[in-house]
Design brief:
Blueprint lengths: L2 E4 L3 E3 L2 E3 L2 H8 L8 E4 L11 H15 L4 E5 L3 E2 L4 H7 L4 E5 L12 E4 L4 E3 L4 H7 L3 E3 L7 E5 H6 L10 H11 L4 E8 L1 E4 L2 E5 L7 E5 L1
Parallel strand pairs: 1-4, 1-5, 7-12
Antiparallel strand pairs: 2-3, 5-11, 6-13, 7-11, 8-9, 10-12, 13-14, 14-15
């Protein structure tokens, strides 16, 4: 099984936005029985809000021209556990998600049990349920491309989309629901989300269900 890892790189005001700690975690991912290719689309941002979506579709074109089996989203501000690839592959889902925390707003978990075009509900909205599911594999309605393993037939069936007010991963999840693709999240694949000099992690032992580490 051959893996195509995609890490979109954003550029703005002559700065490149990625974190060495994130890239190190991507290169440390364990994988047995196949090849791993790492692709980093960058440039062409021009201040446009859909730049990440365009980079994902650039990567999709490269992926579909090759013979890779899985498309792995590993974003440039995520710290992934070394076993993330192996654990997500074992789920055998059409789309398999790791777990992380949003950097903004209420720092909710990235696993959503309900998701529509207009609204979504993170599992962390119900703290007792989140704690009960901690470390388990659960069915989700999707969302959160920071650490996401996608089978080839999903990428073949649906391009990445963006529109004003709706980001790429949200629309990917909506399209996956429409196409009846299975979406699972492994709540033991716990990822860090970098925000400046801080790293946010899901943590069911805290009142807010997250903790903050420093780089």
């Amino acid at each position: 099984m051959n893996i195509f890892i995609v890490t979109p790189i954003q550029r703005a005001n002559q700065r490149v936005f990625y974190y060495p700690q994130a890239m190190a975690s991507i290169y440390a991912l364990e994988w047995q029985g196949g090849t791993v290719t790492h692709y980093c689309p960058s440039g062409g941002d021009d201040g446009q809000p859909d730049s990440i979506n365009r980079k994902y579709n650039e990567a999709r074109d490269v992926f579909l021209a090759g013979k890779w089996d899985y498309f792995m989203c590993a974003e440039a501000d995520m710290i992934l556990p070394t076993n993330a690839l192996e654990k997500l592959r074992r789920l055998d889902a059409d789309i398999a998600y790791g777990l992380y925390v949003w950097r903004k707003a209420k720092h909710e978990w990235s696993a959503y049990r309900d998701l529509t075009v207009t609204s979504g509900v993170s599992i962390s909205k119900t703290p007792d349920l989140a704690r009960e599911c901690w470390g388990k594999v659960i069915e989700v309605a999707g969302v959160g491309q920071g650490c996401t393993l996608i089978k080839r037939h999903v990428i073949e069936a649906q391009p990445f989309r963006w529109r004003q007010g709706m980001i790429t991963d949200w629309l990917m999840s909506i399209d996956a629901q429409y196409n009846n693709f299975t979406q699972l999240c492994d709540l033991s694949v716990v990822c860090g989300h970098i925000n400046g000099q801080m790293v946010l992690y899901p943590d069911p032992t805290t009142d807010g269900l997250f903790r903050i580490d420093t780089l």
